[in-house]
């Protein structure tokens, strides 16, 4: 009987089947192309094992465990229910990887595996059972008890055991008494034992946990590559599997200091010179960033040139150690997109990538002709999932795309090869929520890779935790760098407390004087209300409303409009929510803001007089918001005291950092649990990601867009432009829409967004 590993695919009317044996061989080929073997490890393998802190004495165990896990990872597919699922669309009684783990646990099977040299049975079984990241306590809770009897297919099992014997150069696999069928209820005790082992054997053994992480994720990578690349080969439009991987991980193809200069830094310098119409020169602190250690925290005021300093740091890392990639991680999609436009997009399309939830849509017509970047195609092969990015070398991305593996996200797990051989920048670390900051600390603690963290301001408790994680603080003394000290210590604005009503009058007055005004509120509803009020009061004024609750295509337009208006001559008013706080190069003469947490206020102030025009002090007006707040009481601790301290004073960025240290809470944040780092052998993606969950929003489609949505789907065109985040209470289930999409209720305006 032919045992299939996958559903058949049809190409030009021809059916292409993938047998269990051939799929296993494809995955083995992918593994050896990626890692080589214990005697001849690839450069990537060395980077991978260093990343997971695996000692050379454990190399042989790593290779043996992965090889065995690969051969056995789909053994459980040799059952009638799985065959029915891939041929006729039926359902499985029990996931195939759990059946495979149960077969491995049979006394004779387990005994044989434990007798082999350099094997760790617990690591192999946990890898096999967890390679789809569905392994959690209560394994049999996933079973279909209406079909409790699972017929096994001995031909498929026998075929895999013959393959096992051949690859491990043993005469034959010993006789294993495998039943022809299993009853789920009768083996429930066996799964209780397995779960106990998954708890007990990894709890107190850090070395074993590190090996399990490295082995299981290596299996996931080889399986993803062996499946995706082999499928593309079937389409006759792709390189052979081994050749494609060899190009993606060519030992000679490393990223050098000169390449970063040529592909990113030099084009960006020329762009700045063209825009500012003057010769660009690096500041002393930017040049010194190249000499920083491999683990550092860059603290510098808004507008000081941190991003170019970070690229200089990457050049320094590339000059003293082997890296193949450089990854710049931002907290939001908008900031990642801006980072891509300004820096990564100058690289060749074969090297550069923008990676976040809607990046494919954002890349469409991102640049205006005749910009040289508009001629490039930065898209990866969608059918290859995350594997398609393995040939890229320079990234601008959101943090969760890469650190999602800490929550056992499958896509992020497939991006781990990129992290393992990169230098990595985490920007705006002050803005990370508690869960994301815990993920950053865990990443710094558990993995060996060059990291630079950056921000303009940081509360003392977070600063201390990052120092404890081994980050060198830079600059230790800003006064050592005259250019940096001048920017951070110059008096940039004067702060006053006011009322919302008085702020409206001040905004109108500033507009009539020809100034640019940035008004920041804490909720979308108030953002829309202020924008409408100002538009009515000043009918000739350009008033831009910018927040998160737009359709993506409209948010793109508002974003472009916002950036262009701040760069153009003449007055304008932008009313925004917190989306303006990070990595946007905006400079307003007047900043008006509702009270907000201290770090948020300081980031907002960084958008006032950003160009630091000494002879013209910027103005900052702060007022208490209405009763409704998106922030907790803890978030707003000491805000009143801070505002009382700055009332009526001329303020610099240096003074703001000193006040942040004075008024910030000293209590340490509670560390959140990270599934990837837990002390057990389970591996389950709960789908919540590594950010604190916003249970109040849902991805939605306007009712008026449903027809267009289905038209685009039928034509296989992107639908991302129609999607918007809406308050969950203002949505309803969509008839026929995918489960992750709902229908947004309420009026919609392209200039104001969703009104609800």
Task: Please describe the structure with a list of short key phrases separated by commas or semicolons.
single chain; 756 residues; alpha/beta; Hypothetical protein af1432; Rossmann fold; 4 domains; 7-stranded parallel β-sheet; 7-stranded mixed β-sheet; 29 helices; 26 strands; 42% helix; globular
Computed CA radius of gyration, to the nearest angstrom: 28 Å
Widest sheet: strand ordering: 8-9-7-10-11-6-12
State the domain count: 4
Which residues sit in consecutive blocks of at least 5 with pLDDT less than 50?
none
Structure overview:
It is built from 29 helices and 26 strands. It is an alpha/beta fold and 756 residues long. It has four domains: 19-244, Hypothetical protein af1432, CATH 1.10.3210; 280-364 and 382-485, 3-Layer(aba) Sandwich (Rossmann fold); 491-651, Rossmann fold (3-Layer(aba) Sandwich); 697-755, no CATH class. Strands 8-9-7-10-11-6-12 form a seven-stranded parallel beta sheet. Strand 8, helix 16 (359-362) and strand 9 (394-398) form a beta-alpha-beta unit. Helix 12 (257-276) packs antiparallel against helix 14 (306-320). The longest helix is centred in the N-terminal third of the chain and has 29 residues, at 206-234. The mean pLDDT is 90.
What is this structure, in a nutshell?
This protein is an alpha/beta fold.
Note the topology.
Elements: E1 9-11, E2 14-16, H1 20-35, H2 43-51, H3 59-72, H4 80-88, H5 96-104, H6 107-115, H7 121-130, E3 134-135, E4 149-151, H8 154-167, E5 181-183, H9 188-203, H10 206-234, H11 241-248, H12 257-276, H13 284-288, E6 295-299, H14 306-320, E7 325-330, H15 333-342, E8 352-355, H16 359-362, E9 394-398, H17 399-403, H18 410-413, H19 416-420, E10 422-426, H20 434-446, E11 451-455, H21 460-468, E12 472-474, H22 482-489, E13 493-497, H23 500-512, E14 516-520, H24 524-537, E15 543-546, H25 552-567, E16 572-576, E17 590-594, H26 598-605, E18 618-623, H27 639-646, E19 650-651, H28 653-663, E20 683-684, E21 697-702, H29 706-714, E22 723-727, E23 731-733, E24 742-744, E25 747-749, E26 753-755
Parallel strand pairs: 6-11, 6-12, 7-9, 7-10, 8-9, 10-11, 13-18, 14-16, 14-17, 15-16, 17-18, 21-24
Antiparallel strand pairs: 1-2, 3-20, 4-5, 13-19, 21-22, 23-24, 25-26
Helix pairs in contact: 1-3, 1-10, 1-11, 3-7, 3-10, 5-7, 7-10, 12-14
């Amino acid at each position: 009987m032919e045992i299939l590993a996958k559903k058949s695919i049809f190409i030009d009317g021809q059916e292409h089947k993938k047998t269990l044996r051939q799929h296993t061989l494809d995955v083995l080929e992918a593994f050896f192309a990626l890692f080589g073997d214990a005697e001849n490890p690839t450069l990537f393998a060395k980077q991978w094992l260093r990343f997971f802190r695996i000692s050379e004495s454990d190399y042989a165990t790593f290779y043996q465990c992965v090889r065995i896990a690969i051969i056995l990872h789909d053994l459980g597919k040799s059952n009638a229910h799985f065959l029915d699922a891939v041929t006729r669309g039926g359902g499985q009684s029990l996931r195939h990887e759990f059946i495979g783990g149960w077969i491995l646990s049979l006394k004779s099977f387990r005994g044989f595996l434990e007798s082999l040299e350099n094997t760790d049975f617990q690591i192999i079984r946990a890898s096999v059972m967890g390679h789809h990241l569905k392994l959690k306590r209560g394994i049999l809770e996933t079973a279909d008890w209406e079909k409790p009897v699972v017929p096994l297919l001995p031909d498929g099992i026998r075929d895999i055991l013959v393959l096992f014997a051949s690859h491990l150069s043993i005469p034959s696999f010993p006789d294993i008494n495998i039943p022809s069928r299993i009853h789920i209820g009768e083996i429930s005790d066996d799964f209780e034992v397995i779960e106990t082992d998954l708890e007990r054997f990894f709890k107190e053994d850090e070395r074993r946990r590190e090996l399990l992480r490295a082995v299981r994720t290596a299996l996931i990578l080889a399986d993803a590559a062996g499946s995706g690349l082999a499928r593309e080969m079937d389409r006759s439009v792709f390189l052979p599997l081994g050749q494609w991987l060899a190009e993606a991980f060519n030992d000679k193809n490393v990223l050098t200091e000169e390449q970063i200069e040529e592909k990113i830094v030099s084009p960006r310098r020329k762009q700045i010179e063209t825009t500012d119409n003057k010769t660009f020169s690096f500041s002393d602190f930017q040049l010194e960033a190249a000499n920083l250690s491999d683990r550092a925290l860059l603290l510098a005021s808004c507008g000081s040139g941190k991003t170019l300093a970070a690229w200089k740091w990457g050049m320094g890392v590339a000059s003293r150690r082997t890296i193949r990639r450089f990854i710049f991680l931002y907290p939001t999609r908008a900031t990642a997109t801006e980072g891509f436009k300004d820096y990564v997009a100058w690289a060749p399309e074969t090297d550069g990538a923008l990676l976040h939830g809607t990046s494919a849509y954002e890349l469409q017509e991102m640049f205006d002709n005749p910009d040289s970047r508009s001629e490039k195609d930065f898209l990866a092969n969608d059918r290859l999932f995350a594997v398609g990015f393995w040939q890229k070398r320079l990234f601008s991305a959101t943090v969760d795309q890469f650190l999602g593996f800490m929550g056992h996200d499958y896509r992020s797990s497939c991006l781990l090869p990129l992290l393992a051989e990169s230098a990595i920048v985490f920007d705006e670390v002050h803005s990370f929520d508690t869960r994301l900051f815990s993920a950053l600390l865990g990443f710094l603690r558990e993995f060996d890779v060059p990291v630079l963290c950056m921000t303009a301001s940081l509360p003392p408790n977070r600063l201390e935790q990052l120092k404890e994680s081994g980050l060198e603080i830079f600059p230790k003394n800003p006064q050592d760098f005259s250019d940096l000290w001048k920017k951070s210590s110059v008096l940039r604005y004067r702060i006053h407390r006011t009322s919302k009503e008085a702020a409206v009058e001040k905004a109108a007055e500033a507009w009539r004087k020809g100034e640019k005004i940035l008004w920041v509120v804490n909720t979308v509803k108030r953002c829309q209300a202020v924008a409408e009020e100002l538009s009515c009061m000043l009918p000739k004024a350009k008033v831009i409303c910018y927040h998160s609750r737009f359709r993506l295509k409209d948010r793109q337009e508002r974003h472009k409009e916002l950036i262009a208006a701040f760069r153009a001559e003449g007055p304008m008013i932008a009313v925004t929510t917190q989306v303006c706080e990070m990595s946007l190069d905006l400079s307003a003469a007047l900043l008006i803001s509702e009270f907000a947490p201290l770090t948020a206020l300081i980031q907002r102030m960084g958008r006032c007089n950003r160009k630091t025009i000494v002879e013209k002090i910027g103005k900052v007006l702060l007022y208490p918001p209405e009763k409704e707040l998106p922030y907790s009481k803890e978030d707003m601790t000491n805000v009143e005291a801070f505002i009382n301290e700055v009332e009526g004073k001329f303020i610099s960025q240096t003074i703001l950092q000193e006040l942040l240290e004075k008024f910030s809470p000293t209590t340490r944040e509670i560390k959140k649990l990270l599934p990837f780092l837990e002390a057990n052998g389970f591996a389950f993606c709960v789908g919540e990601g590594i950010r604190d969950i916003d249970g109040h929003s849902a991805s939605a489609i306007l009712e008026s867009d449903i027809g267009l949505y289905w038209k685009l789907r039928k034509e296989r065109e992107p639908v991302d432009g129609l999607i918007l985040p809406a308050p969950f209470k203002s949505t309803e289930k969509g008839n026929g829409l995918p489960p992750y999409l709902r229908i947004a209720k309420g009026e919609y305006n392209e200039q104001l967004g969703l009104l609800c």
